[in-house]
Specification:
heterodimer, A: 283 residues, MetI-like fold, 2 domains, 75% helix, globular, B: 290 residues, 76% helix
């Protein structure tokens, strides 16, 4: 084995000098959340870096809904799941149909629709929230899950259409032509040629829409208010209403809430990095 | 559609349906769901909102509201200082993560966590860390110096800085990831040639890395600025706009007016942001639809 030269050691040390602060910066807020989740109340508030008596008791309280703020935990978890799934399915349906129509069928005016969608994508979502709130009121959808689902579909679709359109432009036109020669109808081309080839992008976009809806706070808190209708993030925000909030329970619930998206993200990372960053910024 | 009165009117135009091919009919049918969503949840709300904000008195009221002026300044600080610091760090870290080391590869997997987890629990976690009495930060300041730490979120400047910090914590991984992609696209033989010529790291950056990443970097900065205008969570969940409504940004201010049932003011404050947003959006669309 060759001993590393002095120069290599110096380079490695410099890299570590960057790597260690990056690691700490990234992990501290997450570790702090985890620390609260496994600490009894006294330990959590005493500033220890590891509790004297680590415990899963907080998780037990959450899962048994044994606290005022947690009495609808399962309902809220279910709401979050249902809304995220509905947004994923609807966005995929709307965006795939639109991308197919614009990119493969060259529908007249497709370019304009694409530009309008792109325009919506760039307008910050928080700005649309105010008129959206009022509109949902006019439609009579406030406090209804459909309000949040439709709002999130509106926000997720433009980017979805754009990424899917870019991806489907890359598929060779000859495929469609060959299918037409064989007597395939438009719907058959869509189902048998287009969808299978688009699968990687569809996975990326579906994941994107599901995560967007699961993570959404602002729209959820504006559009839903009834305790049994709200999603988990809104419930987390409601913890702050009390002066003596049970922070260890808040952090435990937050930890449980953060796990699924993190797991989904890492499971689909291959697709996400390829499908999304390539589309996010075209250099 | 207008009917034109020309000489050879005798031949009526064929009905619309027969002029379109089947493929085009399907095209319209498949585009319809998005168009419906767009009309019902973008066009209608925007028009309705603009109609609500039509009265000039709203703008006078905004102009006279010190919170609005403060929020506008805060937003500018957030964008001009916060985003540029974030993008510079991202540019620097993209070089770090482009190094071929096993441990750096693992670190990059961890580094993406803030982006992968929802922002609410992590922002609240930071909020408690900054708690003056029980927060872990002041706990250690007291343990090491014997002095009480600052009341972090009670000073508008510090609180806004912390909100910018939270924003950077959350979105740094995303932009770093994109800049890494840009960096890896640079041909390696350029660096090898520069090495042979005895270039130092700054010269390599200045003459190889920066020229090839410049466009991407500027695009990312602008895009990040537009999106940060809509960053509601970082401010709202950390400071709630406080103390004394001094740390609001435009996105939280709109919601504040909404909660106070001043919908027309909320819309007017958003309309005021449009002269800044629209040029940026126009510029981005130009870039992306090339």
């Amino acid at each position: 084995m060759k001993l590393p030269s002095l120069r290599d050691v110096a380079t490695e040390a410099r890299l570590l000098l960057i790597g260690i602060p990056v690691f700490l910066w990234t992990m501290i807020p997450i570790y702090h959340m985890f620390l609260f989740a496994i600490s009894p109340k006294e330990d959590a508030f005493s500033g220890k870096l590891w509790p004297d008596h680590p415990t899963l008791h907080n998780f037990e309280i959450v899962f048994r809904q044994q606290h005022y703020f947690l009495r609808d935990f399962y309902v809220q978890f279910w709401n979050s799941t249902l809304i995220a799934a509905a947004v994923g399915v609807l966005t995929l349906f709307i965006a795939t149909a639109a991308a197919f129509s614009i990119s493969r069928l060259k529908v007249p005016g497709g370019r304009i629709v694409l530009n309008l969608a792109l325009f919506t994508y760039f307008i910050p979502a928080a700005f649309l929230a105010v008129p959206m709130y009022r509109t949902m009121g006019n439609y009579g959808l406030l406090n209804n899950h459909w309000a949040l689902i439709l709002a999130m579909v509106t926000i997720a679709s433009p980017y979805a259409i754009w990424v899917l359109k870019q991806a489907s432009d890359k598929l060779p036109v000859e495929l469609d032509e060959a299918a037409v020669m064989d007597g395939a109808t438009t719907l058959q081309i869509f189902r048998l040629v287009y969808l299978p080839l688009m699968m990687p992008s569809l996975v990326a976009i579906g994941t994107y829409a599901v995560l967007l809806a699961w993570n959404e706070y602002l729209y959820a808190f504006l559009l839903l208010s009834n305790d049994r209708e709200i999603t988990l993030p809104v419930a987390l925000g409601n913890f702050l209403a009390a002066d003596d909030s049970p922070w260890e329970l808040l952090m435990t619930t937050g930890f449980i809430y953060a796990l699924p998206p993190a797991a989904v993200y890492y499971a689909f990372r291959r697709y996400m990095v390829g499908g999304l960053t390539a589309g996010a910024v075209k250099s | 559609m207008a009917i034109t009165l020309s000489g050879d009117q005798a031949i009526p135009a064929p009905p619309l349906a027969s002029r379109l091919t089947t493929a085009q009919v399907w095209g319209i049918v498949l585009l319809a769901p998005y168009l419906l969503v767009f009309l019902a949840f973008v066009v209608y709300p925007v028009c309705y909102g603009l109609w609500l904000a039509r009265a000039p008195s709203n703008y006078v009221a905004l102009y006279n509201d010190p919170i609005f002026a403060r929020a506008a300044v805060n937003t500018l600080i957030f964008l001009v200082i916060g985003i540029n610091i974030k993008m510079l760090i991202a540019l620097f870290l993209s070089g770090f993560f482009a190094q071929q080391r096993t441990w750096i590869k693992w670190l990059s997997v961890i580094f993406i966590l803030p982006w992968a987890v929802p922002s609410i629990p992590t922002i609240l976690s930071v909020r408690f860390m900054l708690n003056p009495e029980w927060g872990i930060i002041n706990h250690y300041i007291f343990a090491f110096t014997g002095d009480d730490g600052p009341n972090w979120l009670n000073d508008p400047t510090v609180a806004l800085t912390m909100a910018i910090g939270v924003h950077i914590w959350k979105s740094l991984p995303f932009w770093t990831l994109i800049l890494i992609t840009g960096r890896l696209a640079i041909a390696q033989d350029l660096f090898e040639a520069a090495e042979v010529d005895g270039a130092n790291w700054w010269q390599k950056f200045r003459f190889i890395t920066w020229p090839s990443m410049q466009t991407l970097y500027v695009t990312c900065t602008l895009l990040s600025m537009i999106w940060t205008l809509g960053d509601f969570n970082s401010v709202y969940l950390l400071t709630g706009g406080g103390p004394a409504d001094l740390t609001h940004v435009l996105s939280t201010l709109g919601i504040r007016y909404l909660r106070l049932d001043q919908l027309s003011l909320a819309m007017a404050s958003i309309v005021c942001a449009m002269p800044f947003v629209l040029p940026l959006v126009y510029f981005m669309m130009k870039r992306l639809s090339r």
